[in-house]
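Worked example 3. Consider a protein that binds S-adenosylmethionine.
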Amino acid sequence: MATRAQLRPDKAEPAKAADPGRDFEFTSADFARIRELIHRGAGISLSDHKRDMAYSRLARRLRARGLDSFREYLDLLESENDPAEWEAFTNALTTNLTAFFREAHHFPILAEFVARRQAPVSVWCSAASTGEEPYSIAMTLIEALGDSAARQATVLATDIDTQVLAKGEAGMYQFDQVKHLSQERLKRFFLKGTGAHAGMVKVRPEVRAMIRFQQLNLTDRDYGLRSQFDAIFCRNVMIYFDKPTQSQVLSRFEPVMKGGGLLFAGHSENFTYVTQAFRLRGQTVYELTRDGGAARAGQRGQTQPAHSSTSGVTV
Ligand SMILES: C[S@@+](CC[C@H](N)C(=O)[O-])C[C@H]1O[C@@H](n2cnc3c(N)ncnc32)[C@H](O)[C@@H]1O
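Given these inputs, the predicted complex is written out as structure tokens:
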């Protein structure tokens, strides 16, 4: 496809010289526009020190589109209705750091909590990134409930970033990412890669079958969720949102939470002054302050997991 530059050879302003060491000029106005757009689209507040990160990640988009300047790229993004480019723009600017059993103190709390809940238990992992967190949740449910009860349990794994969701759905990881897990967990929940997959592991199909991966933007007005959850994990994503956005997200969690449900936050996230709907229970775990969700729970359907297929990894 022809670029706007190619379509407009008479462009009033010729491309300016690139910054030293950079392929493209990157002005404060460009960065300000990027901040505005990603805030509008994903709720993410990019701080000043993310300027170099924004440059390097989006410069790839300019190259991919054959464009000469950030201004052209941002004009294109704003003027053309191009969902694929918006997706690429968003994917480029998210930070996806995660790990299996990250902030490990949450998992025994989840295990103890679900053991007391009515079946079938459902958990929503709302910033799932590349899958390590939802898989850690599913593994915890199996350990807490046993294999057969856990088969009825579901984990909804959502994220705004489609690239990380695809990785999560595949369930393949470098062995290095799981080497800190106990031998028991490794044997019970992973298959070891051989041949072309040596050095890798794959999450076992029965664990993957408990999880449904789906794109969801936490800043959307309507999440379109028809089920309620015993627990919601919303860890290390609210730090990218400003207070009004945090407050809106929390108000949308409330109706999809079953009575007595728990909300798990990241280590540096504090919702105490953002919402009255959830009360801090300790260790960055919040509980719903009212029981209203339970009444609606029976009227709604349950989230069903998709059964993912296995790939060429053998034991
Ligand atoms: C730092 S990771 C945290 C992953 C995981 N929860 C953890 O704590 O290990 C933050 C994730 O939030 C996602 N994210 C950012 N903005 C989002 C939004 N508006 N809606 C849904 N997910 C979003 C990013 O794509 C990224 O995968």
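Take a moment to read the result before moving on. The first strand starts at residue 122 and ends at 125. Confidence is low (pLDDT under 50) at residues 1-17, 292-315.
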